[in-house]
Write a structure and sequence with these properties.
This protein is mostly beta strands and about 110 residues long. The protein contains no helices and eleven strands. The termini are far apart.
């Protein structure tokens, strides 16, 4: 079982930046990848980015060039650096870990508004 806790969400103006953090705990030995999704109320959860245990990354087209996913020094830590945020990036952001079944954090709200 893997427990995930996200942090770093908040309110930011268009063009601003935020860094989200995800800390995983528990049995991390089988985690093959971690990543982020986001969800707007009334819409499906949307994949944003992921990073494999080998360090390979992939991004949704809507965030490519603006968001960067990375791992921290502590095992099971993943960051999402978000730049040039736009109102359409407003959502609850969820961290996930595949170990091997996908597990989710509780989410952190990101609001982009003037």
């Amino acid at each position: 079982q893997v427990r995930l806790v996200e942090s770093g969400g908040g309110l930011v103006q268009p063009g601003g930046s935020l860094r989200l953090s995800c800390a995983a705990s528990g049995n991390l030995s089988r985690v093959s990848s971690m990543g982020w999704h986001r969800q707007v109320p009334g819409f499906q959860r949307e994949w944003v980015a992921h990073i494999t245990s080998g360090g390979s990354t992939n991004y949704a087209e809507s965030v490519k060039g603006r968001f960067t996913i990375s791992t921290g020094d502590a095992k099971g830590t993943v960051y999402l650096q978000m730049s040039n945020l736009q109102p359409e990036d407003t959502a609850v952001y969820y961290c996930h870990a595949d170990s091997p079944f996908r597990q989710w954090g509780q989410g952190t709200q990101v609001t982009v508004s003037p």
